[in-house]
Amino acid sequence: MTALEKFLPWTVRYLNRFTLLRILAFLKSRGLVLLAFLIALWMIWGLAGKVMESACRLDLRSIEFSSNGIVAREYALGLLQIEEGVNLAALDTAGLESRLLASPAIASARVQKELPSTLRVEVEARVPVVRIAYEESPTYADAGQPVLFMDPGGFIFPFDEQLHADYRDIPVWRVTPSQVVPLRAGSQIRVSECAPIVELMRLINSRSIADIPPVLSISRPRGWQLLLFLANGTEAQMTIYNLAEQVGRLSLVLENARARRKHIRRANLIPRVNPVVEYDAVPDARDSLPDDAPVAEEVPED
Question: Which helix (H) or strand (E) element contains residue 156?
């Protein structure tokens, strides 16, 4: 626009042939850019509409699950009973956590929403340390009574076929009514009672079966005393103090007996020097070794 045109009325300035020619020239030179801009604006508008529509619905599309390995995803989802395509905003996470914790085998559970469409489920199951039963009770294989397990915290919970098939053969802790009352799922044993058992099993499980045979059962006749019954028929006596040293002595006397082709009937592992070992008169074939096995020194008997 020239300086002279500024003094003309606006109707003359804008509604004339020269102005229209300027507009057409601008559209011609900038037409492709303007067209691309309008197309991009249309696509952004459409995408924003879809996002807003999805955000308004908040449909559940995925469930992220994690656990300590005992509880499977299918087991946890069976407890949650969440319908497919449910609105995520309508889910009560506290209620879902309560459904998971209703299972005695689950120690803790956490359920979180992650917008717009994900539910995160974290479960920690109780880890069985021992089976637990009163001293006069038969083993679970012979009785129709429910099988009870104990976790490291002393919590008692029932056997679940879906979760604990790999824990059928863990040792049995034979307790007395004075130690555990009542013995039922949901009760908890005092830490002073269960801590030595938990520590003992941790130490034994850290060794190989070739070193120490599997433990069948454990009892605690006195507050300070532990009796172990091994799968090879050996009975071992320990005290609740210095368990690591006594497990080490158990490994040594068993190694000595295997080397001498003898079977230990009883072993008192409480003495730090020269544990008291009682052998069977006839060697047990389960403890025999090849002829070229090294022979260790005999353990003195008191």
Answer: strand 156-158
CA angle 180-206-245, nearest 5°? Answer: 75
> What is the C-alpha separation between 190 and 181, in angstroms, rounded?
10
Q: Other CB atoms closer than 10 Å to residue 206's CB: what's the count?
A: 11
Q: H/E element holding 174?
A: strand 172-175
CA-based nearest residue to 103, from 135, 81, 118: 81
Question: Which residues of the chain fall below pLDDT 70?
Answer: 1-33, 48-57, 136-145, 181, 282-302
Q: What is the pTM of this model?
A: 0.69
CA 51 to chain centre: 37
Distance CA 177, CA 197 (A): 17
Distance CA 220, CA 251 (A): 21
The pLDDT of residue 295 is 40
According to DSSP, the residues that pair with 155 across neighbouring strands are: 188
Separation between Cα atoms, residue 61 and residue 283, nearest integer Å? 65
77: helix, coil or strand? helix
Report whether 62 contacts 116 (CB < 8 A): no
Q: Convert the pLDDT of each residue in 244-254 to its tens digit.
A: 999 999 999 99
CB 60, CB 119: distance < 8 Å = yes
| CA 105 to the chain's CA centroid | 11
